[in-house]
Amino acid sequence: MNDKIAIKVDDLTVAYNFKPVLWDVDLSIPEGVLMAIVGPNGAGKSTLIKAMLDIVKPIAGTIEIFGEPYKKQYKKVAYVPQKGSVDWDFPTTALDVVLMGTYGSLGWIKRPGKTQKKRALEALEKVGMLEFRSRQISQLSGGQQQRVFLARALVQEASIYIMDEPFQGVDATTEKAIVNILKELRKSGKTVVVVHHDLQTVPEYFDWVTFLNVKKIATGSVKDIFNDDNLTKTYGINYKVSVLQ
Amino acid sequence: MTSAQIEIQLIACIVAVACAIPGTFLVLRRMAMISDAISHSILPGIVVGFFLTEDLNSPWLILLAAFSGIITVVLVEYIQKTGLVKEDTAIGLVFPSMFSIGVILIAKNAGDVHLDVDAVLLGELAFAPFDRLIINGMDVGPKSLWVIGTILLLTLTLLITFFKELKISTFDTQLAATLGFSPVIIHYGLMTVASVTTVGAFDAVGAILVVALMIAPPAMAYLLIKDLKRMLVLSAVFGIIGALLGYWVAHWLDASIAGSITTVLGVLFFFIYLLAPNSGLISVLYRQRRQKVEVHLLTFLLHLQNHTEKSERHINHLYEHINWHKVKAQSVLDLALKNNMITIEDSIISLTEKGETFTSEAINYIITNKSAAIEEMKDRFFLFRG
I want to staple B15 with a disulfide (CB 3.0 to 4.6 A). Which of B174, B193, B201, B342 is the partner? Predict the structure, then answer.
């Protein structure tokens, strides 16, 4: 981690049908952290990252990626959506889905060629899915589908990786594999932001954490702020770190 | 075959291919009903366009009619966004209104327009060869052939140019947006192509067949193929088969060509739905039956492994004990024997070594919640499937 700010969120308010789901959120994510966003259901975790990615339009506030709006920086950001957000019966293969990650750098009209294919295969190998490259995506298990999604983000060779619940419904092996890749990404100086559900694994997987419940409760290093006080403020009931472990 | 017959079939085939391309993406985007909406609501556009241009094949009429198709899509989306009704309701609200405006316009000006509602719904492919395109006094073929041919060429060019964009925004809209592609532009681009194709095909084949040609061939291809490019090709092929077969059925029955093509497509779909190798009805039923027998086999083997005492392993006792009727018990027993999982001596059943290994492994997978691995295991152990 260094002093540079990767993502800066200022006074962000997002509303669906006039009901705020995020209220006046300020957040600075330093470059090079591996950060979890935690909070109860309906806390606006997914909305926050969708706002970062310019998928959801805020009614107030700004978001900067390395000091500039998303539209100018989109090539530096890779996104792993929730697995359930796409139709896995779509007629395509694992390799083809990973190739889609290269479309951003190609821009309009240009097609992926040998270089892109090589990168896609490397990414598949990294997530341990090389042997499944020609498999139709509906024939993959949940964990394998998630790995394909991760590989698709890896080929983007971005500086920031934003993931929406990558551990949702995956087997233990896949979870380990994903965590290892996240840690590798951090080691190589990337910033990783993960919407995360399992409080128990926060200290083990992440070094930075943001507590969110419509408002931002706290953000900082896991060491400093992952404590009973913030857990209780976020989840409302008497939460204890010791109980989690 | 006369030249008119050849021309009709050629038009039908080109219409089929031109419809299959946008249709494939509509099916994948679960927007099949939108094509129905478009096909009906272009009617007011056609009527107004005809008042202005007095030529059913004028490019201005096509654009105007396509524009009313786009208006439909926008209206449907707008109504849907209010959150008051769901998409299907929104579609059901918009297109009959648009269509009825067209019907009233035709009725009010019946004298001037050679359009009637029958022709609008079913088209009249048989008349297509009569309306010729004459350039410098030379007959270059039926007008509708040129119209739909041009539309097909444009569609193909767009498809090849923007294939990647279409694919990514259909599969994962959010990713497409974050990568700097505008899903909205692609969405309306696709809707425009669908509208223009519908208008171009409308005069020849009518509103109902346009929908059939857009949806049925891709739906068939989708059951058979799991690759987008091949799905597009196969949709086109199914469209052509439907068009040609339908033409000859109409010839044979002396019935409407459009109606026959639609019927043929329906019948084709029915057969593919029954017979498709993996997703077809027969194959699904077969697989379910097999899985059922194999689950019974596993239950049976577990019982044998659990009970070493002879009384529990006697053939007659088994029938009563696991509470199976004779036929089922016999088929499970046969399957176990065929796969060398058990031996029977003096009516006492014992697990073979292979049966033991299989059962232990299976239990292990079940306990550790790796049921998926059992399928792989069956491939290893079974000589014969259930």
Answer: B201
> How close does chain A come to B372, measured CA to CA in Å?
9
Q: Is A62 left (phi over 0), alpha (psi -120 to 50) or beta?
A: beta
Q: How far apart are CA B79 and CA A222, in angstroms?
A: 46
Q: What stretch of H or E contains B358?
A: helix B353-367
| Contact criterion met (CB < 8 Å) for A90 and B177 | no
pLDDT at res. B243: 94
Q: Tell me the pairing of strands A208-213 and A34-38.
A: parallel
C-beta of residue B162 within 8 angstroms of C-beta of residue B48: no
DSSP-based three-state secondary structure for B351: strand
Choose among B18, B31, B20: nearest CA to B186: B31
Structure tokens at B30: 């679960």
Q: pLDDT, tens digit, for every residue of B153-209? A: 999 999 999 999 999 999 999 899 989 888 999 999 999 999 999 988 877 788 778
CB contact (8 A) between residue A91 and residue B225: yes
- Closest chain A residue to the Cα of B227, Cα to Cα: A91
Beta strand A77-80 with B132-135: parallel, antiparallel or unpaired?
unpaired
CB contact B161 to A (< 8 Å): yes
How close is the nearest chain B Cα to the Cα of A135, in Å? 10
Which of A50, A79, A140, A173 to probe the B interface (max B CBs under 10 A)? A79
Q: Are B227 and A95 in contact (CB under 8 A)?
A: no
Please judge whether B181 and A85 are an interchain contact, meaning their C-beta atoms are less than 8 angstroms apart. Answer: no
Q: Which of B67, B75, B62 is nearest to B18 (CA)?
A: B62
Contacts of A19 in chain B (CB under 8 A): none
- From first CA to last CA, the distance across chain A in angstroms is 27
- Residues in chain A with pLDDT < 70? 1-2, 238-245
d(CA B183, CA B291): 42
Low-confidence ranges of chain B (pLDDT < 70): 110-118, 319-322, 368-373, 386
Backbone torsions φ then ψ of B110, nearest 5 degrees: -55, -35
Check: CB of residue B162 under 8 Å from CB of residue A109: yes
The torsion region of residue A87 among left (phi > 0), alpha (psi -120 to 50) and beta comes to beta
- ipTM rounded to 2 decimals: 0.87
Name the residue in chain B with its Cα closest to that of A80. Answer: B175
Q: Do B180 and A107 touch (CB under 8 A)?
A: yes
Q: Which two tokens stand for residue A11?
A: 């006074």
Domains of chain B, start order: 3-278 (1.10.3470.10), 282-381 (1.10.10)
Least CB-CB distance to B172: which of A74, A81, A108? A81
Cβ atoms B329, B342 nearer than 8 A: no
B376 touches chain A (CB under 8 A): no
Strand (E) positions, B165-267? Answer: none
Q: What is the pLDDT of residue A244?
A: 64
Inter-chain CB proximity B171 and A79 less than 8 Å:
no
The C-alpha atoms of residue B40 and residue B33 are separated, in whole angstroms, by: 11
**What pLDDT, on a 0 to 100 scale, did the predictor assign at position B288?**
86
Q: What is the pLDDT of residues A165-222, one digit of tens each?
A: 999 888 888 888 899 999 999 999 999 999 998 888 888 999 999 999 998 988 999 8
CA distance B351 to B336: 9
Closest CA of chain A from B322, distance in Å: 33
Decide if A46 contacts A39 (C-beta within 8 A). Answer: no
Residue for token pair 């472990």? A245
Q: What is residue A158's DSSP assignment?
A: -
